[in-house]
Structure formats: structure tokens, C-alpha cells
Amino acid sequence: KRMKAFLVDMTLYEHVQEPAALKQTGFTADEERIMATHKFRRHRGRIRGAVFGFKISEWAKNRVRPVWNCYVKEFFKDQVPHYHMQSPRRIFQKLMASSGRKDTIFVQFDFASYYDQFRLGEEVSSHFCFKGRDNEVYALSRLPMGFSLACAIAQSATWQILNFEKKSTLFTCIDNVAFAGTAEEVWHDVRAFLERTLQVNATLNELSGQQIQEFLSKPKEVQLGMVKSWHHNEFTFLGVKYNWILRKRSISDKTIDKLEAAKRCVLAMSDTIAPRQLATVIGLLRYATVIADKNLYEKFSLMAWTRRVGAYLQEDIKRWDAAPIAFPSEYKASIVHWFQEVGENIPVP
Asked: Residue 267 CB: number of other CB atoms within 10 A?
């Protein structure tokens, strides 16, 4: 309840100073017209905060995702709760512990466009304004990706939906929810999860509201059979491909596509790199390294350089969006080699 209050309670924004000016986004006029149907609305009242919108490519899905650099986030730096996601290795260990029992299955769900399911109150929207390509002022109407509290708000909502007595092993990260255990255990928790999802009108990618109602209306034996059918011996969860039978894990196809696209991007660079590009590349590589069970300590020199760059950027937050920084050839070569190492994608226990 405390986190969701940030969607509508203006008193939580009382300490925020108003911006000097509004900026136009990095979107085209056509892209803005498409998003105007569900992500923002025309704003004519007081402007209390500004955002700058830019897009990142999702190569695997052949689409772009809008991200918003929110002026207001600087006033909440000390209030951001930390969510510590379990490592792929720990998730794998818990999965394998479950798979050792008879009749064990794994079923997962994914909330559809999760941040878009959180509507901002009209007054709160005034803290997320920008100037459109038509020179009109707009305000975001949905929880923006890029707001420092967005992750905590979404995760708290997921935990609230899952606030029931569980019998299976639960895995969750923001919009991803998964259950592992015997068919009976997973059926019990999936049924409760779908009931509560329907109660709050949350939307899933796997099942529509009508399909959930149809599932809940069926007798237990039929529901149990449906839940069993949702299990697959090879499945992907949080960028990791798990093989239930071989008891091994590897980097998912989608993550491999991201790595390949990022490598091409790095190879095309000269002697500079944008700070946010560097952060994205290193973050992706570090996650892939954990999945592949590679030794991160071999990257000591490269990581020491990225830490120095990070310290420089944090001295003045505006540097993140200023001019590109120097990209020494030895570190570029090291990053390319790193891409090649994780790209081998050999399944590990």
C-alpha cells in the first residue's frame, strides 16, 4: 500500500522542486501518436516535473521500448527500496531440489506490459511532463519505466497478489511469477494466484481474463490436468534456459540475441562510447557470465576501469547524458572477447 500510494498521493511529492524547462522526447511524431493512446495524455494544468523519453531496441521482438528519464527521481534517491533478485545459480539449485521429487512440474506466468497496468493520478502525472513534437505539453498517465520507484511499486503489487498460503516453491521478479513443486502443490498455488489476478484486473500474457474464468469454473481434476500441461521439460525463466531432464542451464535464445546485437554495436564504435551504452553492455555481460558460470575475476582490469568511469559519472548525474566518453582500444577488445566467451553458451550443471 505504501508503494502504490506514489501513484496517486501528491503529499509524497511535496519536497520536489519544479523543473526549469520541458524537453522534447527522442521519439518521432508518429511514435508519440501511437503511445498517446495509452501512455500519456494532453496536459493543461500546472507543470510540476519533466521527463525525457528515449527508446531502446528489443532485437528479439523487433520492437522498441520507451524509457523515461524522470526529473523527479533525483528527489527520491534516498527512498528507493532495494530488491535483491536471486542469482540464476540459486534459482537453479532450488529448481533442481524440486525436480528430484516425483510428479514435479514448473509453471510460470508473465504480467503483460506490467508498468502500463499502473495508472498515475492526474495530479501525480503533472510531475511527468514533456513537450511533444507538436509543441503541446503532455503528461505520462502510466507508471514510467525509468522512474526510480517503478520497480519497487510493481514488485510490491506482485507480492500482494501472491499474499496467500503457498505450498510450492515460488520464484518472482517484478512481472515474472513461477511455481515449482508437485502437481498438487503447483495447482493449489496457481489457482489462488489466478483468482487474485482476476480480482485486481491484472492482465497476463499467457491467459486472458475470460480464459482464467473458464479455468476457475472447471472441476479440480480438469484444472489439475491443465496445470500439468503447462509444464515443459525445457523452459526459460529470467533469461536462463533450464533443462528439467538433463538438470542443466544455459543462456536463453533471447539473451543470446541481445548479446549478438550488443556485440555488433560495440564493434561499430570508434574510440568513444555513450555512458548508458557502456552500463547496458557491462550489465548484460555480467548477467550472462553468472548464467554461464564463467569466472568474472578474469575481467579485473576491465571492471576496474568501469568502476572509475562510474565514479566519474556519479560526481555529476548530468554526465550520464552528456557527451560520449573515451573508449580505449584495449577495453573495447576485452569486451568483444567477453562477448565471444559467453556466446559459446555451453550448458552447465
From this structure: 11
